[in-house]
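thought: fold this chain, then report.
action: predict
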Amino acid sequence: MGFTGAWSISCHEDSVITDFAPRIAAAVEADRTCPRARRGWAAWRRAPLPDHRTWWTATPAEDEAIRSFQDLTRPGRHVDDLCAFPFVDEIWDRQPDQELMFVSVHSKAHPVGALFHAIGPGRAALLPGWCGNFVLTAAEVRGALPEVERALGFGPAERARAQEQLRLDSEPRESVLDGPLRAWRAAARAGLGLCGLAFHAG
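observation:
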């Protein structure tokens, strides 16, 4: 069965963040505390996955680990249920400036899962929220920026290695390796909060 995976990061005034935070934070927390998700996260941190180009010859144990990681990094049920089109459209309407947004949409791929595999669990653990989902005030964005820089700031060799493991088709506007940090820096410069949502767009 086909699907379309999406990841949206948008910058907003704190008043907008306050409007949306209760619903988003509750859904993110429900997905984060799901026992299956916590087991998947712990397993991935103990044993990061091999080069994705070897997955088709994976042993049964490796195949189980791959499925566990894919289950972990696909949109969580609570956030996915929240992100019906009217809700996401309302959020996007509150930020019409495309330079203050990052959106990655892929057929038969989950952008957050692709990014996490490319950067590994050590860097992924530095990102706030849960598996690409977060709702942060301007102060929280500024406070988190140093760790986000550590997670998503790449030297040339690091970026080349991450690109090899990305498992995504070329993106028309901006790579998932670049867009999240750009949006984070833009929010910090402008004194804005951030809303990140990973969901199925179709």
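thought: worth noting. The first strand starts at residue 4 and ends at 12.
final: tokens above.
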